[in-house]
Amino acid sequence: MSLEQNKAVVRRAYEGFNDGNVDILDEVFAPDYVAHFPGTEPVEGREAAKQLVGAFMDAFPDLQFTIEDQLAEGDRVATRWSATGTHLGEFRGFPPKTHGIPPSGNRVHFSATDIYRIVSGQVAEEWNTLEQLDVMQQIGAVPAPPE
After folding, report:
1. Of 21, 68, 87, 128, which alpha carbon lies 20 to 30 A from 10's?
2. Neighbours of 70 (CB within 10 A)
3. pLDDT tens column, 61-116
4. What are phi and psi of 45, to 5 degrees?
5. b/e per residue 101-116 (b: at least 16 CB within 10 A)
6. In whole angstroms, how far apart are CA 36 and each of 53, 64, 122, 133?
């Protein structure tokens, strides 16, 4: 696949997320997809990814992503994105934990730069850089540092 085709695969995932469509992962993620998050064990498998994204979208049902930049080289696509939404459901972390933080109604804005490995037109692996502390502060679960 070309670099532009690889970038389009990642863009397609974010388009689906913006529509609230977790099933987009059946199209763009490989069955043996692996996600790496700072400080946690990898999330393995498309079904586990659907649960993870679904839980995040449940916590922020109006979440909208914007791709700010994309760079591609070989089988990798680096994507800098931002997202805005409202904390209207229980937030259980990313990846989700067994207990969560009740809805605060707070608007949030956060961003990350993630790297995706594309194999045969699907995302096979992801290195995610979402800063959860920022999200936790915005929903009021953790105090913000003094200014």
Report:
1. 87
2. 18
3. 999 999 999 999 999 999 999 999 999 999 887 666 767 889 999 999 999 999 99
4. 100, 145
5. beeeeeebebbeebbb
6. 14, 22, 16, 17
- Please give the CATH architecture assigned to the domain spanning 3-138: Roll (3.10)
Which sequence spans correspond to the domains of the chain? 3-138
The answer for 14, left when phi > 0, alpha when psi is -120 to 50, beta otherwise, is alpha
Q: Are 32 and 47 in contact (CB under 8 A)?
A: no
Q: Which residue has the tokens 């913000």?
A: 144
Query: What's the pTM?
Result: 0.91
Task: Provide φ and ψ at 44, rounded to 5°.
Answer: -120, 130
Record the tokens describing residue 6, joined without a space.
């690889």
The H or E element that residue 58 is part of is helix 46-59
- Give bridge partners of residue 102 from the DSSP assignment: none
